[in-house]
Amino acid sequence: MPVSTFDAKNFLSSVTQQPGVYRMYNAESVVIYVGKAKNLRKRLGSYFRLNIPSEKTKALVSHIVNIDVTVTHTETEALILEHNYIKQYMPKYNVLLRDDKSYPYIFISKHRHPRISIHRGSKKRKGEYFGPYPDSGAVRESLHLMQKLFPVRQCEDSVYANRHRPCLMHQIGRCVAPCVEGIISDEAYSEQVSYIRLFLQGKDQQVITELVEQMGQASQTLNFEGAAKYRDQIQAMRRVQEQQFVTGDSTEDIDVLGFAIEKGMACIHLLMIRQGKVLGSRSYFPKIPANTEKEEVFSSFLSQYYLNYSEGRTIPSRVVIGEHPEREVFEQALTELAGHKVTLQVNPKGLKARYFKLANTNATTALSSKLNHKMTVHQRFKKLEKALQLDSITRMECFDISHTMGEKTVASCVVFNQEGPVKAEYRRYNITGITGGDDYAAMGQVLERRYSKQLDVDKIPDVIFIDGGKGQLNRANDIISSHWDDWPKKPLLIGIAKGTTRKPGLETLIKTSGVEFSLPSDSSALHLIQHIRDESHNHAISGHRAQRAKVRKRSVLEDIEGIGAKRRQNLLKFMGGIQELNRATVEEIAKVPGISSTLAEKIHDALQQK
Question: Which pairs with CB-CB distance under 8 Å and at least 24 residues apart come from 107-112?
Fold first, then answer.
């Protein structure tokens, strides 16, 4: 461990005792830690005592060569500034919450016949937003439930605008078909939307009361079919009430945070309760430096999660947590940000205590599952090291090629480390300038693009897998070996050839020396190879399908010079669609307003070639 050359005594003599934020730098002028303090001199002085009990603090102090201080008026300001600095610098010794996902909402559009759908991102569209939900799965579950309770349309606007008869969703009772005139009145449709609105606001009982009134009115007017529909809705609502675990009569927005830490890993489990309903839950696994105290882990999560407004999350009126030494500071900061009173509740009672126990149980379970998975992956790496006769494997990459009869070739590269897939580093490459179906040329192009640029030392893989036989592997070896003269290590190249029956477990592994070998079908090393191969294949094929679908959705008319959006519209409208246009002669096309004989000939030739 290096010894710090930082002159702490001289530095501390000039530090203020006001609240603020400090940034610690290493010899490369990289920020390695960001912290806040009520009293900067007192807090910074604690790092440079003779006896430092924390191993993490000792390691941090040994790398410090400079400290910057920013004074703030209050602790609340310091808390917010600390969060912004952590987000900006991602320091090595801070607890980091890597959560880049935006949070989904349920959206009710502002149309004549509103659509209910899932929404992510900025709230630019006119309509109402309900949420946020912890993940898209929770939203889809809610949308599926509401299709049964209130059959309001969920189809895209383009589908809705072009329907002339009811679709399958109407036939199975999941939509009232507002797209077709005469099936449902605007008033009746608006009534169903109003029920959804009340349901999402947690006013289930009000919905049932109104449905009972409507059923009574329908019975009095001898509209027994309508009364039966209201009866079915009431029964469905009551079943939902029985199944859902709700917070009684309370409509308070609450987050409940469970916490578990073990073996250098931590899990915070968030239980979201909005308008009296449990919307769902989600587990977070922040990246924590070795020997970090659990109080710092939880405190860092709290600030980074709730101060990060860029992801569209909201701050509820109550957050139920365990003990927290800086509860009042957080309450004040969150209240200022949210614009309403926010309470951090510790030691909850009654129903909230049950939720808190549930959140802690889920945190412990999720952490145990994560640790077991990590151990399994680690064991598989060890078995693979033994099978390939390597001292250590810390990083692997795998390449695959996907196309359909040479159309829209896409290559994929996936990355694994000792914790499993590193999805943030997955890449796709659109292959161009080759003969369709030439997999050797495609593999050569992707590897050239991948490895011709300068690589960081820690990004050089120990093993590179090529999903293919000897030809693919030899081509890969030619490309990669031309670039590794400056690399501090040379990766092992392995080809993965499928067996004659193409069944999992019968793969043949090929080395660049030409040696072929197989691993037992129950080998954990083979399972790891199959995992990275399958990830590569799935990543390539999903990219290829997206490219192919993009091409097939594009009209051939868009590629004809002189045909803009207005002329395309006139052609399709006048001829009655693309199929009629395909069958039309040059003379018939020339009759379309705005289409000359020369242009009609061009269009006809292009359509015939297609």
Answer: 108/193, 108/196, 108/197, 109/157, 111/157, 112/186
Q: How sure is the predictor about 322, in pLDDT bands with cuts at 50, 70 and 90? A: confident
Summarised one tens digit per residue, pLDDT across range 377-418 is 888 999 999 999 998 999 999 999 888 766 778 899 999 998
- The answer to whether 127 touches 107, Cβ cutoff 8 Å, is yes
Who contacts 33 (Cβ-Cβ below 8 Å, separation ≥6)?
A: 23, 24, 60, 91, 92, 93, 94
Structure tokens, 567 = 């002329």
Asked whether the beta carbons of 519 and 526 are under 8 A apart, the reply is: yes
- Strands 105-109 and 116-119 come out as antiparallel
Q: What is the DSSP string of 347-410?
A: S--HHHHHHHHHHHHHHHHHHHHHHHHHHHHHHHHHHHHHHHT-S---EEEEEEEEEETTEEEE
- Report which of residues 243 and 53 the model is more confident about: 53
Nearest to 536 by CA among 451, 378, 425: 425
Question: Measured on CA atoms in the order 34, 35, 41, 42, is the torsion positive or negative?
Answer: negative
Q: Which helix (H) or strand (E) holds 108?
A: strand 105-109
Could you give the dihedral angle defined by the CA atoms of residues 293, 308, 136 and 372, in that order, rounded to the nearest 10 degrees? -20
Token pair belonging to 251: 């409509």
Of 282 and 606, more confident: 282
Q: Is 577 exposed, middle or buried (0-12, 13-18, 19+ CB in 10 A)?
A: exposed
**Cα 86 from Cα 141, distance rounded (Å):** 35
pLDDT score, position 247: 45
The answer to whether 538 and 413 have CB atoms below 8 angstroms apart is: no
State how far the Cα of 297 lies from the Cα of 291, in Å rounded to an integer.
11
On whether the CB atoms of residues 426 and 412 are closer than 8 A, the answer is yes
- The torsion angle over the Cα atoms of residues 545, 547, 552 and 555, rounded to 10 degrees, is 160
Q: Name residues whose C-beta falls within 8 Å of residue 349's C-beta, 6 or more positions apart in sequence.
A: none
What does the block give as tokens for 418?
């000792």
- Does residue 310 carry a pLDDT above 90? no
Q: Are 255 and 61 in contact (CB under 8 A)?
A: no
| Segment of 4-8, 158-162, 213-217, 344-348 carrying the highest mean pLDDT | 344-348
SS (H, E, C) 140-169: HHHHHHHHHHCCCCCCCHHHHHCCCCCCHH
For residues 423 and 335, what is the distance between their CA atoms, to the nearest angstrom?
Answer: 36
Please give the order of strands across the beta sheet that includes 31-37.
Answer: 31-37, 20-25, 66-71
Question: Which residues are CB-contacts of 152 (< 8 A; sequence separation ≥ 6)?
Answer: 114, 115, 116, 146, 175, 176, 189, 192, 193, 196
Pairwise CA distance, residues 389 & 51, whole Å = 45
Taking only the tens place, the pLDDT of each residue in 169-227 is 888 888 889 988 888 888 889 988 888 888 777 676 777 777 777 778 777 777 777 67
What is the C-alpha separation between 97 and 81, in angstroms, rounded?
16
With vertex at residue 448, the alpha carbon angle to CA 444 and CA 452, rounded to the nearest 5 degrees, is 160
